[in-house]
Write a sequence for this structure.
């Protein structure tokens, strides 16, 4: 039997699919019961949270197991198998162990490092135990996953990762100003009421904002978060909840907006943000991405010769054939030019001409070609020679937005709006290469790898234990049989003599078996060591049913002795 997991999560499926595939408590129970009733599976447990549905099973056939588990997930979720299949992932044996340990440590969570998943894993195991669908493998696996998760949180700072992301995002919004100084007196709008949004709201409240408004699709969750903020002793913030249809009005009053929802589409479009800015200032919002030199309203019908450049006859391009919108200085214009033509083009752009009488030597041309090739290989294109265009000075931001959602909640076009500063996951990723949480994540990954190797070795070693026990039982039966035979042939031996003989024979057998059984356990614990149990059974002609009976007895004892 081998461990198999089939599932879907926020990393593989959109929220709309996860919502449709969500399982009630009764549906989860029926799913695991139907799984163990299926032919390939002997044990089963389901881990279902708001952003993942995973079915774990101990199966004897990989392909049949994947097909059966996928079909059962589709049947019980109500999403057709054909629709569900593209979003499913499969992990087998050590990869399945690695996946669950990573999940337990919070590495696979939407909020990296969150600890709520440990309680969900514990509940999943408890349900499987109540339904008698968890045997030795899944009990060992889930209990070890809980220990690994607790170790990761106690030995690293992984549980600070989510907080680090929020704090780092606010620091990026504050642009060098201490966050408490920047946040003091501001009004904040938090969109979403999940763990990351809750953390952002609490962080803003501690930083000193005057008001936090919470908007969420489920109004009760927004009310609950606002109530927690109001009742907290570590801040004096005013908090209230609103429905999602009130967000547009709240945008005109907020100074800071933090959004982290599970939406698959945009929550705030660039038009909505621009409208909110106009509502605050009373004037249309400018596009800070437009240049002062070439306003979009003043675009010419055809490209004129750029100011300050040489005469048209000195340009190596056919300007008359250039289409509207074609840049005579762009990489498309110079693509494929040889060194001499590139030099002439650059000189024309700079406003001068090339004196052919003072041409460089062939060696100099070769150096130019080599330099151009090296630059193209590095940056992926031929460099342009152009004069910098004057850019309109961007006004200081007065409206701050932090998008912590993936996929994004806030339109990236908001970056172009004057007076608005947007920080999103993409910009945070670029700026956070040296963030403390990166080191914590790496440390947790090392812990997971070590624990997966240890768990695999222990499981492989345990698989040979019933065979070793059966071998020693057979040896004890042989000793007992030979002692009884000796008693019949030598009836004159007294009890002391019989005892000495019995002990001597037992010592001989124990010494003969000790080294081989210890060594075979060590070999079986190594990767690929599963075949040693089969070899032992074959060499000593052990009864397979005896081995299976020892294994069943061990499982029964562990179940009886396991704490509730």
């Amino acid at each position: 039997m081998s461990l198999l997991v089939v599932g879907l999560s926020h990393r593989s499926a959109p929220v709309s699919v996860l919502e449709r595939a969500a399982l009630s408590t009764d549906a989860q129970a029926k799913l695991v019961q139907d799984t163990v009733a299926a032919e390939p599976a002997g044990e089963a447990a389901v881990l279902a949270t708001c952003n993942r549905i995973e079915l774990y099973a101990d199966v004897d056939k990989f392909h049949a197991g994947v097909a059966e588990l996928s079909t059962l997930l589709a049947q019980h979720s109500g999403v057709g198998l054909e629709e569900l299949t593209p979003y499913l992932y499969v992990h087998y044996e050590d990869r399945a162990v690695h996946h669950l340990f990573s999940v337990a440590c919070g590495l696979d969570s939407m909020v990296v490092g969150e600890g709520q998943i440990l309680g969900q894993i514990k509940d999943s195991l408890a349900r499987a135990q109540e339904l008698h669908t968890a045997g030795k493998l899944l009990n060992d696996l889930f209990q070890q996953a809980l220990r690994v998760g607790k170790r990761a949180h106690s030995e690293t700072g992984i549980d600070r990762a989510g907080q680090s992301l929020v704090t780092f995002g606010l620091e990026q919004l504050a642009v060098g100003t201490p966050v408490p100084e920047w946040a003091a007196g501001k009004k904040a709008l938090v969109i979403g009421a999940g763990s990351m949004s809750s953390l952002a709201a609490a962080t803003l409240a501690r930083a000193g904002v005057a008001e936090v408004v919470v908007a969420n699709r489920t109004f009760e969750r927004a009310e609950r978060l606002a109530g927690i903020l109001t009742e907290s002793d570590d801040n004096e913030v005013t908090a209230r909840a609103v429905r999602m249809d009130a967000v547009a009005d709240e945008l005109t009053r907020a100074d800071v907006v933090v959004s982290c929802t599970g939406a698959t589409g945009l929550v705030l479009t660039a038009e909505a943000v621009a409208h909110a800015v106009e509502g605050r200032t009373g004037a249309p919002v400018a596009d800070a991405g437009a240049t002062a030199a070439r306003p979009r309203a003043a675009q010419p019908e055809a490209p004129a010769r750029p100011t300050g450049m040489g005469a048209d006859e000195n340009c190596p391009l056919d300007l008359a054939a250039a289409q509207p919108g074609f840049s005579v200085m762009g990489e498309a214009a110079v693509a494929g030019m040889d060194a001499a033509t590139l030099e002439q083009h650059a000189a024309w752009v700079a406003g001068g001409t090339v004196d052919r009488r003072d041409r460089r030597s062939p060696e100099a041309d070769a150096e130019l070609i080599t330099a151009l090739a090296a630059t193209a290989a590095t940056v992926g294109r031929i460099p342009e020679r152009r004069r910098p265009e004057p850019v309109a000075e961007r006004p200081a931001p007065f409206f701050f937005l932090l998008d912590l959602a993936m996929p994004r909640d806030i339109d990236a076009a908001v970056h172009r709006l004057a007076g608005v500063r947007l920080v999103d996951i993409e910009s945070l990723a670029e700026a956070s290469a040296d963030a403390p949480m990166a080191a914590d994540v790496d440390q947790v990954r090392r812990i997971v790898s070590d624990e997966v190797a240890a768990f695999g070795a222990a499981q492989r070693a345990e698989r040979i234990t019933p065979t070793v026990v059966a071998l020693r039982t057979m040896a004890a039966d042989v000793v007992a049989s030979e002692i009884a035979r000796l008693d019949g042939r030598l009836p004159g031996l007294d009890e002391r003599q019989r005892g000495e003989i019995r002990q001597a024979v037992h010592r001989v057998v124990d010494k003969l078996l000790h080294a081989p059984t210890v060594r075979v356990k060590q070999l079986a614990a190594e990767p690929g060591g599963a075949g040693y149990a089969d070899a032992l059974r074959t060499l000593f002609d052990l009864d397979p049913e005896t081995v299976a009976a020892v294994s069943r007895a061990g499982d029964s004892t562990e179940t009886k002795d396991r704490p509730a």
